[in-house]
Design goal:
Helices cover 38% and strands 11% of the residues. The protein is an alpha/beta fold and 466 residues long. The strands form 4 sheets. It has a 6-stranded parallel β-sheet with strand order 3-2-1-4-5-6, sandwiched between helices. The chain has a two-stranded antiparallel sheet with strand order 7-8. InterPro entries: DUF7923, Znf-CCCH_tandem, Znf_CCCH.
């Protein structure tokens, strides 16, 4: 019998054994891998279990801390009332009643605000009320006297005394004369309390003007903040603030504040003739005078709106004795044939300097700056410190150079800003680097001009004759 078939069968069995052994090895390897994966998953599960337990404990701690913080935040709640006395005026019966009227006005306003809070912010319970009214007391007293409320302006002090004595957190603050002083104080105080967690509401009362409109428009862009602010409306808002009514709560207290502006009654103001004339000071030359104990400087008297022109004249410095801090520059009426001088203003009543700074070559501008020319001599025709001025008076300027020198003078801010009514003022009333509608210039916070002097509308719609 042939052995070959048996050999072939033997080989087939050997191949099957090899396949069987390979299968067993593969199965053992797979089991090993699965056991390793299982151990890793087991470790991960135990780690996640510990992590979740730690997170739960941490969450409980955080919730406890939040509860404690909320309890702290709810302590001593208060609201702030910031009023500009130029736009928010107490009713006549309060003002005329002197100290008693001041006390009654404070009590009535306090009660009115509490009533408003109960209706609009019921979650704020028993808040303290901090009231600050910023007012040019002397100017307001004169305004009341012109309107016939007082026999003399000083009577306003009785009302203020009564108001300030009534409550610990309520006061009328005398800010003195000056443009936008109340606005600046209100804005700074506003920023202090806006993010204070204990302050639940800020009441802002102000006149309708362009500066307040810009400020409140900026705040209204953050919807999370507008709910913390209520606008107090006394005299109905004009176009500057009327468009912001949809962004804020509006609070009206007609039982406390006037709803109409004061009407002047000059003929019935016996104190008018006794008032001294108001003197307006403009910047003086920057150089000091070594041979004078007190350097003479330039000043201007105030001007009234009229159809007649005015001319500038200056007194010469007193070289023999001590000179006053400011020299007096008087304005006298010219003949009736002289053309009236004018101040151009935009629709907001802001002064507009008709000067295109972009049209002036930068090289020419820098060249004239280096010459240290006297602005008073070349632009006003006479320097009040002629004998002691260290700036150049002798150079002959072309018409174009005079135009450029005018632009250089405009780079120095006028202290009366956009409300300056001096037709011969050589200083700047708006930032020359700012474009209409843009609230900043490339200089940012380092700009010498106030923020309100930026983005001025340069379209002239009215002219004030001086």
């Amino acid at each position: 019998m042939d052995s070959l078939p048996f050999l072939e069968r033997y080989r087939q069995l050997g191949t099957l054994d090899q396949q069987k052994n390979q299968l067993i090895e593969d199965l053992l390897k797979r089991v090993t891998d699965l056991e390793a994966s299982f151990q890793q998953e087991k470790l991960d599960h135990e780690r996640e279990t510990r992590f979740n337990r730690d997170i739960q404990l941490h969450e409980m701690e955080l919730m406890q801390q939040i509860s404690q913080i909320k309890t702290i935040m709810d302590r001593e709640p208060f609201v702030v009332v910031l009023l500009d006395g130029e736009g928010i005026i107490f009713k006549d019966e309060f003002l005329q009643a002197g100290e008693e009227g001041g006390r009654n006005a404070a009590d009535q306003l306090y009660a009115a605000i509490h009533s408003y809070l109960r209706s609009n912010l019921p979650s704020v319970t028993t808040p303290k009320i901090m009231m600050k009214i910023y007012l040019n007391v002397r100017g307001f007293g004169e305004q009341c006297a012109r309107s016939g409320l007082f026999a003399e302006p000083g009577a306003i002090h009785d009302f203020i005394r009564g108001f300030n004595e009534t409550m610990s957190f309520s006061e009328i603050v005398d800010i003195g004369p000056g443009k936008n002083k109340a606005q600046h104080k209100i804005q700074e105080t506003f920023q202090v309390f806006l993010y204070n967690c204990h302050c639940h509401q800020i009441f802002v009362g102000c006149p309708s003007n362009f500066e307040y409109a810009l400020f409140l428009e900026d705040v209204s862009k953050d919807n999370d903040l507008t709910g913390r602010i209520s606008l107090v409306e006394g005299v109905p808002f004009e176009k500057e603030l009327d468009g912001l009514k949809g962004s804020y709560r509006i609070a009206r207290f007609p039982e406390v504040f006037r709803s109409a502006k004061m009407a002047p009654a000059w003929a019935t103001a016996p104190w008018k003739s006794a008032l001294p004339s108001r003197t307006l000071m403009t910047p003086s030359p920057s150089r000091q005078f070594s041979n004078l104990s007190n350097p003479p400087t330039l000043s201007r008297t105030s001007t009234n709106t009229s159809a007649s022109g005015v001319a500038l004249s200056a007194t010469t410095p007193n070289l023999n004795g001590g000179s006053p801090d400011f020299q007096q520059v008087s304005r006298s009426k010219t003949s009736g044939s002289a053309a009236p001088k004018t101040v151009e203003r935009n629709k907001y009543g802001q002064r507009v300097d008709r000067l295109d700074f972009k049209s002036i070559p930068r090289d020419d501008l820098n060249r004239l700056k280096k010459l240290k020319l006297c602005n008073y001599h070349f632009l006003l025709g006479e320097c009040p410190n002629e004998e002691n001025c260290y700036h150049d008076h002798d150079r002959k300027l072309t018409k174009q150079e005079l135009h450029i020198l005018t632009a250089i003078a405009r780079m120095t801010p006028c202290r009366f800003g956009l409300e300056c009514d001096d037709p011969e003022c050589i200083y700047g009333h708006r930032c020359p680097q700012s474009e209409p509608g843009k609230k900043t210039c490339f200089r940012g916070d380092s700009c010498r001009f106030e923020p309100v002097a930026h983005g001025i509308d340069t379209n002239i719609v009215k002219v004030t004759k001086i």
